[in-house]
């Protein structure tokens, strides 16, 4: 009766409506966040929904209509569900047009506060929609791009549905001895012979001969013959250029930046006596306000670049007073326990803090029998002009951080990122707590 949006790993054999798969959980959650800001749909589980006695915080901040407790029109709720489906299908314009109609009506009836709310929702949808990049027409098509330097080659795929970029993939080849045409044909064959949707039109950067067996296979699979097209002008040509640019960026990231990172990792290993050159570095930080709403966060960087799908947040409860060491210990234990379960341990843990925070983290790792490198990064106590300091388990005194070294800049970048991440989460918790306190009066 009251459907909700839910993220699942795989579809079940039931009557639910499924969208996807989505290759990036970060992009998916960004999409759901935009929908929740625009449409007041419930987000709680069925168990919570059917046992709730009063509206939750989501209702108080305007993100849920609280059908669990309040009288809500089923027809109106169904209309919100239809709009959510339209957004998931890429039909953002129709939802924007609907909201614009409501905004104009509210303004005409002098309900300016309601009109402002509709305006804000329209802006959220437009902002998210614009992040999709270059608009196409309403056709579904895949666009392939290619970039080569010698035997090194990168290939990219841009996936457009209903005129919007919904996903992208990139591949690299280190020993691409075959001509571009043959590599592209092999890539097309591998890409479309697995369970992937075949659009009506596939744009290619160059002509591919001997593609008839592949076309026949795809026709048999999807019941129609896809069109392979090498555009020479117009929008489709610009889409190919975009795909080629995407392939070039993947090429640079893989074959240039990764090689530079190897030197940075070696520099880190030598400077801090690490057991290995760290490819994955994760940082831990704690935030609180006078001991309330204690929050922890972990950010993950792989070869110098943020891996946001591995970012983690922790709500810490049960600590009777401000205790950074206990908070760090809890975050480390919870995070490493999950890493062990997923067989996905980092090479280096960076703690935002000094010697005591480092000791707390090291002790927690030892209690779990986890042997990884752990260091701590702290700013100088007395003067901002003094260098930042790195604390090591094997040394009583910290090492000064040389800002001229790329490895030092990377550590500061990662520390600043975890600090930003945990502060944002803590502020949200503080805001919700203040709303709850106001509602209790």
Question: Could you please describe the fold and organization of this structure?
Answer:
The chain is α/β, with parallel strands linked by helices and 441 residues long. The chain folds into 3 domains: 25-130, no CATH class; 141-254, Nucleotidyltransferase, domain 5; 280-440, Nucleotidyltransferase, domain 5, CATH 3.30.420. It has helices spanning 25-38, 46-51, 57-60, 74-88, 92-108, 112-130, 180-193, 212-222, 234-272, 324-342, 355-367, 406-440, and strands at 141-149, 152-161, 164-173, 201-203, 227-229, 280-289, 292-302, 305-306, 312-315, 348-352, 373-378, 389-391, 399-400. Strands 6, 7, 8, 9, 10, 11, 12 and 13 form an 8-stranded mixed beta sheet that branches. The protein has a 5-stranded mixed beta sheet with strand order 3-2-1-4-5. Helix 1 packs antiparallel against helix 6 (112-130) and helix 10 (324-342) runs parallel beside helix 11. The model has no long low-confidence stretch (mean pLDDT 84).
Could you say which structural class the secondary elements and strand pairing correspond to?
Answer: alpha/beta
Alpha carbon gyration radius: 26 Å
What gap, in angstroms, lies between the N and C termini? 33 Å
Proportion of residues in extended strands: 15-25%
Instruction: Outline the low-pLDDT stretches.
Output: none
By CATH, the architecture of the largest domain is named 2-Layer Sandwich
The CATH superfamily of the largest domain appears as: UvrC, RNAse H endonuclease domain
Largest sheet: 8 strands, mixed
The mean pLDDT is: 84
In oligomeric terms, what are we looking at?
Answer: single chain
> Which CATH class of the largest domain?
Alpha Beta
The helix content, as a percent range, equals 40-55%
Q: Helix and strand string, N-terminal first?
A: HHHHHHEEEHEHEHEEEEHEHEEEH
